[in-house]
Amino acid sequence: MAWFIVKRVLSIIPIILGVSIITFLMVHLLPVDPAEAYLRLSKIPISDEAVQLVRTELGLDQPLYTQYLNWLSGAIRLDFGSSYITKNPVWEEMMNYLPATLELTFSSIILAFLISLPIGIFSALYKDRLFDHFSRTLSFVGAATPSFCLGFLFIYIFSLKLGYFPVSGRGGLVHLILPSLTLALASVAVYTRMLRGSTIDELHQPYVLYARARGIREKIIIGKHVLKNAITPLITTMGMHIGHKLSGSIIVENVFAWPGMGRYFVNALSARDYPVILCYVVLVTTIIIICNLLIDIFHAVIDPRVRKKGVY
C-alpha cells in the first residue's frame, strides 16, 4: 500500500510541471506586455524608458526559458512574486482567499450528495413510476440552467422578495446556503442519474436474490449491501468534480460577491495581473490532482485489486 501511494504521488509531479509550463507560455503569449500592464496598474505613465526599466526589474528582458526557471524556483518556495495591483505577495493573498473558496466548494459537494442520495435511491426503487419521471425531469432542468441564472433567481426570490437570506457576502451559515445550493444543483442531475443506474444494476445482482431468498428484510438489503456497492462510483465522480466546482465557483463567487479565489482571479484576469493568474492556475491544478489522488487511495483501500493490478 505504501509503495502504491508513493508511485501515485510521484506521478503527479510531471503533471503539475506540465501545467505550469503551458500556463506560463500562454500568459506570455497574450497580446498585452506584462511591463505595460504593470505600469498601467501602478498608474505610471507608459513610455519606452519606463517599459524598459520595468522589463529589467521583472526579468522580462531575459530569455523565456530563463524567466520560467526563475519563476519555477520561486514557486517551489511558494514565492509567486507580488501582485501588480496590490504589490503584496501573491501567495499570501491567495491563502487569504482560499478558505472561502474551499468552504463554498466542499459545502456544495456535500449538499449535492445529500440531495442526490435519497432521490437516486428512490428513483431506482420506483423505476419508471411517477417519482422517477419527476426526479429525472427536475434533474435535467437543474443541469440545463446556467449557474448564474440560478444564482440571480435565488437572490430575487429568497433575498429580495422573501428576505430569508442576505444578497451577498460571506458570514455565517445563512450566507453560505444560496451560493452552495446554486453551485450544487449543477451536479445533482449527474449524481442522481449515476446513483440511480448503479443502484438498479446492484438490485439485479445474484447476491440480492440470495438475500431475499434467505428472508432478509428489504431495508437491510438496500441499506447494508446495495447502497454500499452502488455509492462507490458516486464517490469517484464527486472527487473528479472538485475541479468542476472550483471552476464553477468563479461564476458563483461573482454573483454572490463571495470573497474567494474565483473573484480574486477574475479581477486579476481583467487587469492582466500575471503573477496572480499563474499562481491561481497552478494552485487549482494542484488541489484537483491531490483530490483525485485521495480518491485513488480510497479505492485502493476498499478494493485490494486496484493496488494489486495498478489500475490507478
From TrEMBL:
<keyword id="KW-1133">Transmembrane helix</keyword>
<dbReference type="InterPro" id="IPR000515">
    <property type="entry name" value="MetI-like"/>
</dbReference>
<keyword id="KW-0813">Transport</keyword>
<dbReference type="GO" id="GO:0015099">
    <property type="term" value="F:nickel cation transmembrane transporter activity"/>
</dbReference>
<keyword id="KW-0812">Transmembrane</keyword>
<dbReference type="InterPro" id="IPR035906">
    <property type="entry name" value="MetI-like_sf"/>
</dbReference>
<keyword id="KW-0533">Nickel</keyword>
<feature type="domain" description="ABC transmembrane type-1">
    <location>
        <begin position="98"/>
        <end position="295"/>
    </location>
</feature>
<dbReference type="Pfam" id="PF00528">
    <property type="entry name" value="BPD_transp_1"/>
</dbReference>
<dbReference type="InterPro" id="IPR050045">
    <property type="entry name" value="Opp2B"/>
</dbReference>
<feature type="transmembrane region" description="Helical">
    <location>
        <begin position="138"/>
        <end position="160"/>
    </location>
</feature>
<feature type="transmembrane region" description="Helical">
    <location>
        <begin position="277"/>
        <end position="302"/>
    </location>
</feature>
<keyword id="KW-1003">Cell membrane</keyword>
<protein>
    <recommendedName>
        <fullName>Nickel import system permease protein NikB</fullName>
    </recommendedName>
</protein>
<dbReference type="Pfam" id="PF19300">
    <property type="entry name" value="BPD_transp_1_N"/>
</dbReference>
<feature type="transmembrane region" description="Helical">
    <location>
        <begin position="172"/>
        <end position="191"/>
    </location>
</feature>
<comment type="subunit">
    <text>The complex is composed of two ATP-binding proteins (NikD and NikE), two transmembrane proteins (NikB and NikC) and a solute-binding protein (NikA).</text>
</comment>
<comment type="similarity">
    <text>Belongs to the binding-protein-dependent transport system permease family. OppBC subfamily.</text>
</comment>
<keyword id="KW-0406">Ion transport</keyword>
<feature type="transmembrane region" description="Helical">
    <location>
        <begin position="12"/>
        <end position="30"/>
    </location>
</feature>
<feature type="transmembrane region" description="Helical">
    <location>
        <begin position="104"/>
        <end position="126"/>
    </location>
</feature>
<dbReference type="InterPro" id="IPR045621">
    <property type="entry name" value="BPD_transp_1_N"/>
</dbReference>
<keyword id="KW-0921">Nickel transport</keyword>
<dbReference type="GO" id="GO:0005886">
    <property type="term" value="C:plasma membrane"/>
</dbReference>
<keyword id="KW-0472">Membrane</keyword>
<dbReference type="GO" id="GO:0071916">
    <property type="term" value="F:dipeptide transmembrane transporter activity"/>
</dbReference>
